[in-house]
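Re: weekly structure request thread

Next one in the queue (112 aa):
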Amino acid sequence: MRQILSRLALAAFFIGFSTLVLPAETRAQGEASKVFKTNCVLCHAANGSGDSPAGKAMSAKDLRSAEVQKESDADLTATITKGRGKMPAFGQKLSPDVITSLAAYIRQLPKK
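Done, posted below.
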């Protein structure tokens, strides 16, 4: 029993330590990645190309394209918040901070 408690305490220490050591930006990117997978992949595909069956049917934009990438951060966050065309609005579902991190994630898609 004592050995199990020691192992649990050690595991908790490492989890807590890694949370403090990982930069907030890295954690935010991880959360943005999860949000993207949950809310965007259905239409935009995992790579942002829009080549998913639903994306093709709705003519979803390629988020890696120069057209999307040249949009300002304010334009991207407004699109995510309010929706555009067939894209639904996520302003009621996602917090402004999450939407901002999602826009930053979209900026990274062409580099992947």
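Residues 24-111 form a domain with the Cytochrome Bc1 Complex; Chain D, domain 2 fold (CATH 1.10.760.10). The mean pLDDT is 84.
Next request, please.
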